[in-house]
Amino acid sequence: MEQLTKVILKSGKDQSVLRFHPWIFSGAIKKITREINEGDLVEVVNNKDKFLAIGHYQIGSIAVRIISFQKVSIDEKFWYSKINLAYNLRQTLGLIESDETNVYRLINAEGDGMPGLIIDHYNDVLVMQMHSIGMFRIRHLLTDILKDIYKDKLVAVYNKSEYTLPVKANINATNEFLFGDSLEQVVEEYNLKFRVNWFDGQKTGFFIDQRENRKLLENYSKEKSVLNVFGYTGGFSVYALKGKASMVHSVDSSKRAIELTDENVKLNFNEIADHKSFSEEAFEFLTNIKDKYDVIILDPPAFAKHKKVLHNALQGYKKINRLAFEQIKPGGILFTFSCSQVVNKQDFQKMAFSAAAMAGREVKILHHLTQPADHPVNIYHPEGEYLKGLVLYVK
């Protein structure tokens, strides 16, 4: 087995590793035994040179992302096993050969034991997004493994990591096909159609993580007036229409997102849908709609990506939710979300409590929502549960 550079931890700083947490923070490191480059494999040991883990070295607060807690060779067989295990899980979930859904997440970073790597499946095209140099450096190996696992079902593998790799690494990465070629796809989710553009769209092209929450909204939409705020490409709007809502309005500040929303509505309902979209700022739109909507969806972008801005983010969530509480019809239903990893479930629920109290509305919690099973959360890495949601009844 290759002799790896050792990362020696300070005394007492091995406890999180012994609890299988997949991150080593830079402040926990006592010494690195030799010169090292970002993305290199390293062996993590305690202050007495006892083996703890193997991971990818990274410049920054998270200095090592752990890929194995066992002393094994990190070779093609190792990575094949990891990806095949993730594939088998999605097969167990009924997603690999589903007749109604052909979009799902194959690799969910720490949730699948592969920190720094996201792979999403769009109708036989895999979109790969790397957040670490270690994963970026093995992208061609990963592609070969994916081709072997999917065989002739795989049309293309697209690398969309240009803006997600650490800037300090000075890697001039460009988005590119690593295998095959494909234009944007029309995918199906619960037999509903969505046009996905992985070249220019957010994340890998579509917010796959809201699939089950969109399905739940369908059940609350019959004969209701529905407002989808921060609508992006209209996922929630399409489900509300399928649920026979009497009226659906979509709001997003991006004109391109609104165009895609209208296109997705048309893909599923032709011209008959009672839908209207607005390219406006969410906070402004929510100020003058008193008692117009029975159901409101708030799915904003991450207001906080770092703990230092957590307070300001919670104030932003509180403001937008207070507006929704003030404006929604009596007896209305509010679907509200946060995709900020640093906002935990307790913080989010306290925010909703404060917003409801400020609006002077009586509110009941109907559902606690999170990401679907193809976005698994490593039990030793609770930070992986980034998506939080509440379904609230507003008297």
How are the elements arranged and paired?
Blueprint: E1 5-9, H1 15-18, E2 23-25, E3 29-32, E4 41-45, E5 51-57, E6 62-68, H2 76-92, E7 103-108, E8 117-122, E9 125-130, H3 133-137, H4 139-150, E10 156-159, E11 176-180, E12 185-189, E13 192-196, H5 211-219, E14 225-229, H6 235-242, E15 247-251, H7 255-269, E16 275-278, H8 282-285, E17 295-298, H9 310-327, E18 332-338, H10 345-359, E19 363-369, E20 388-394
Parallel strand pairs: 1-4, 9-10, 14-15, 14-17, 15-16, 17-18
Antiparallel strand pairs: 1-3, 2-6, 4-5, 5-6, 7-8, 8-9, 10-11, 12-13, 18-20, 19-20
Helix pairs in contact: 2-4, 5-6, 6-7, 9-10
Question: What do these coordinates show?
Answer:
The protein is an alpha/beta fold and 395 residues long. The protein folds into three domains: 64 residues, Archaeosine Trna-guanine Transglycosylase, Chain: A, domain 4 (Roll), CATH 2.30.130.10; 112 residues, RNA methyltransferase domain (HRMD) like (Transcription Regulator spoIIAA, 2-Layer Sandwich); 188 residues, 3-Layer(aba) Sandwich (Rossmann fold). The chain contains ten helices and 20 strands. The strands form four sheets. The chain has a seven-stranded mixed beta sheet with strand order 16-15-14-17-18-20-19, sandwiched between helices. Strands 2-6-5-4-1-3 form a six-stranded mixed beta sheet. Helix 6 links the parallel strand 14 and strand 15. Helix 5 packs parallel to helix 6, helix 6 runs parallel beside helix 7 and helix 9 crosses helix 10. The radius of gyration is 22 Å and the shape is globular. The model has no long low-confidence stretch (mean pLDDT 93).
